[in-house]
Amino acid sequence: MTERTMSKETTSSSLAGKRALVTGASSGLGLEFADILAAQKIDLVLVARRQEPMEKLASDLRRKYGVDVLVEAVDLASPGAASRLKSSLDAKAIAVDILVNNAGYGLHGDFLETPIERTTDMIQLNITTLTELTYLFGRDMATRGSGHVLLVASLLAFQAVPSYAAYAATKAYVLALGEALHDELRPHGVVVTSLCPGHTATGFDAAAGATDSALLRLLTMKPRPVAASGMRALLQGKAMVVAGLSNKMAAFSNRVTPRSMQRATMRRIMAA
């Protein structure tokens, strides 16, 4: 999707002047979501654990697009973080019209060899905090009768993935939640869309403790078109989108292949 196409779709949706909250805004896809939204004159709340990179991004976006940008440094992996963030924004009388639930990370390696504390921290961020944010801000949107929620799932949500067992399971939850809420919240004027990226050139692998395989490097997408495809699908009111043609083909193939074959294939793809 081009920036010009994005501009036309956003204008038709009358989102200019609204406020978007982007989690995981200090790096990766979060940077692209923030830039795409700001380019359409949408004010922002940037949320992540690291304040310094967000302050730099906020300064750049204010200068480039003339939008209002608020930075909230919050460790979203901590219990109760979603409620604290919501209370902070309520105290500032800031209403969120677009929620981009992008924060999350993966863990690569055998399940039993990964400290359980790291796995539960990941589940807290990828599932619990995401669910709480969707509930807290989605409830306000439903009361107002309008709103948009983008949930970032993954291509790995479509099958079990040895060496990414718990991570893939968290993303399967995100995808199922998002598709269900798409139907539940639509009568209340709230659009919920799940974005399923494949392997993307962000800091994901380093954070997960993984090394790219040669095949993964061939399948890697740049973050900008991934973020743009998610925003386009959200504005078009779609329930779900898989970013990239090869990733769409991979997701479709899961409908016709045995699950044992899927696991074996993913083990080979993910092998370093």
TrEMBL record:
Q: Which UniProt keywords apply?
A: Oxidoreductase
Gene Ontology molecular function: oxidoreductase activity
Q: What Pfam families does the record tag this protein with?
A: adh_short
Q: Which Gene3D superfamilies match?
A: NAD(P)-binding Rossmann-like Domain (3.40.50.720)
Is Oxidoreductase tagged as a keyword? yes
Domain of life assignment: Bacteria
Report the sequence similarity comment from the record.
Belongs to the short-chain dehydrogenases/reductases (SDR) family.
Q: What is this protein called?
A: Short-chain dehydrogenase
